[in-house]
Batch of 3 targets.
Target 1
Amino acid sequence: MKKPFSLQPIRELAKRQSDDAAATLGRLRGAEHKTRQTLEALREYRNEYQARFEQALMNGISPGELNNYRAFLAKLDRAVEEQQSLVEQSEVRSETGLQQWQVQSRKVKSFDVLAAREDEKHRKEESRQEQRILDEYSASRNGKQHD
């Protein structure tokens, strides 16, 4: 009868931790994607607003409108910088999540290797026992034939 893998509870825990790390990594990458999308949207809006500003300059604007355009462009530039910072932070979190998942995944693979080795050991033991039984049976039959 085959014995269960002696480290099975730890193996199952490692598998759950690996699954949790994979789910966390998925969430982190999703959040990173959203921060990138927001950054791109801000950049697009800033470029559009810059184009409107340049068009207004060509058409002629008052000093008050000029100040309003410049002030709003400055706010957009700050928003782009802040969003870029959020993207970078999100990238770091995603990279950390990837590394944690890789560590957990390696643990699971290590336990899988140990389990495979233990299974192979049990198969060899069973094979030797079967061979021993066959040898004994064969020897006893041969001994009866010579009598």
Target 2
Amino acid sequence: MAIIFLWLGAGLAFAYLMQIATGRPKEGHWQRSAVKTGATLALVAAGLASTAPGLVVLGLALGAAGDFFLSRRGQTMFLAGMAAFAAGHLAYVAGFWTRAGHLGLAAPSPAQATALAMLGLTVGALGLWLSAKAGPLRLPVIAYALVIGLMAAAALILPANP
């Protein structure tokens, strides 16, 4: 059953790309929002139909909300989308951390620790570089970059084949 939702999501993602390529309907149109959000909601349905951890499904659902907000116009919608995506990434962090603890992972390996340090430097530099171009959205951009880095770091502590 999950595979059906994955194919549906892929089809909707393709439809969204076609909307961008053709410029129809215009950005901010409800049809465009429905297709963009529907593609991500199909991933939520696939997660629910499979054995995906609840926190991962929650992260996907928050990502769908973020897609919807970002498909609308205006700074308020942009900030709502960024907040929804950040909350979704934090759900992934909790899910990864819970999974790593469940697997008995006590501490990252030296390779993982090095990767985490490099990730921290990269995300920090990227956050500062992006924030310099973000104007009044500087602080939300930095916070979002840190959340992305935290999510990637949580993923790095997972064993290769849990």
Target 3
Amino acid sequence: GESRVVVQLGAYGSPALLQAGWAKLSRKHGQLKRFTPATARFQAPIGQVFRLSLTGFQSDTEARRTCMALK
């Protein structure tokens, strides 16, 4: 089964900025294309924030490795 771990990639002020962020990250880190980008919108004190994260990891270890590779 898949791990339920989610790796957050960034938070953006609009859907367009989020799309641009994902395009840039997935170009720079080709391994990200194996996973599923997920978005969530939430209300923050500064206004609406659009969070970009990844799901679809086979294990917590794989998620941690991916996270470390991005840093």
